[in-house]
Amino acid sequence: MASSSPSDQLFDVEGVVELYGVEPSEFVAARAALVKRLKAEGEKVLAGEVAKLRKPSVVAAAINRVARQRADDVDRLITASEVLADAQRATLLGGDAAELRAAATDRRRLLAGVAGAATAEAGPAKVAEVSATLEAALADDALVADLRRGTLVDTLSAPAGFGFGTAFDDGPAAPSRSAGSTRKKGVGAGEAAVGNPDWAAEEKARRKAEREQRRAAEARLATAEKALDQGEKELRDAEAELSAAQDAVTLARARVGEATARCDSLAAGVEQARARLAELPEG
After folding, report:
1. How would you label 241-265 residue by residue, b for 16+ Cβ within 10 Å and e otherwise?
2. Quick check: 66 and 74 in contact, CB under 8 A?
3. How far apart are CA 273 and CA 117, in angstroms?
4. How much is the pLDDT for 41?
5. How many DSSP H helices and E strands does the chain contain?
6. Which residue has the higher pLDDT, 105 or 90?
7. Alpha helices in 5-96 (DSSP H)
8. All residues at 6 or more sequence positions from 172 whose CB lies less than 8 Å from its CB, including other chains
9. Half-sphere exposure (CA, 13 Å, Cβ side) for 121?
10. Is 176 left (phi over 0), alpha (psi -120 to 50) or beta?
């Protein structure tokens, strides 16, 4: 097993995870209290790391609180996202489109519930940012861990392709890996591009890769949607055939009933004829 990164180790410090569950207005005071406690315990290095932790954005803080209040719903949403990804891959390989449709419906329902709760915390003006941040977190394994334990820091943009999310906020490093990996500490993206040609080239390559990922994702989506349309058509055809077959069975049963009644009537007539014949004298 790979060793934990320093960020993960910092989350193991008592009080750090809980720090992300407080109201944004209380974060600075809570962080200061934690730093003071760590210094009193002789943990000066940890205290210095904690002092660098950034206050979560309003959106991230709202999602963090929901992750604590509705942990089961968040777990179910994460699982539903994994199930949907598996269903998409299976459909592209010729799997059952009905499973894809069911997985998409289930994830959409769970996402709406979690996003609605977080929007109620953050305010209605943040509805789009809440949804984008949740989508970005669900598309990245590291961010999924932050989402599950309620330690998101940044408001994120919706992923350009599967598995991509971009942070809006700049600032000192935090234990959460929400911030973009190409940012320099305390330096905005535009300043980094001007002062570092290599960074600019890397950024250009990254954006190109994201565009290619998006085109590939759109192609996969188009293929999946085409497969879904075909599956739904086949379902409608099968339902129509079933309905026709059921009508035929109903009609056949009615004819069997009519034929049975006619045979019974004819049999009774034969018996009556025999009885009359038996009553007549011979010769």
Report:
1. eeeeeeeeeeeeeeeeeeeeeeeee
2. yes
3. 84
4. 93
5. 11, 2
6. 105
7. 6-11, 16-19, 24-40, 44-51, 58-69, 71-92
8. 52, 53, 54, 185, 186
9. 26
10. beta
Identify whether residues 5 and 129 lie together within a single domain. no
**Dist CA 174 CA 156 (whole Å):** 15
| Same-domain status, 36 and 146 | no
Whether residues 114 and 191 fall in one domain:
yes
pLDDT at position 239: 65
Q: What is the rounded CA–CA span in Å between residue 240 and residue 155?
A: 49
What DSSP string describes 12-31?
Answer: TSTTHHHHTTS-HHHHHHHH
Q: Which of 30, 53, 76 is the last residue of a domain?
A: 53
Task: Summarize pLDDT for 132-176 with one digit per residue, the tens.
Answer: 999 999 998 889 999 999 999 999 988 764 433 333 333 344 454
The residue written with tokens 């056949």 in the block is 252
Domain count, the chain: 2
Q: Given the structure tokens 């979690």, which residue do they identify?
A: 114
**Spatial CA neighbour of 75 closest among 144, 154, 133, 12:** 144
- Mean pLDDT on 88-113: 89
Q: Amino acid identity of 9? A: Q
Contact (Cβ atoms closer than 8 angstroms) between residue 64 and residue 30: no
Q: How many CB atoms lie within 10 A of CB 176?
A: 26
Beta-sheet pairing, 156-157 with 166-167 = antiparallel
In a shared domain, residues 213 and 78:
yes
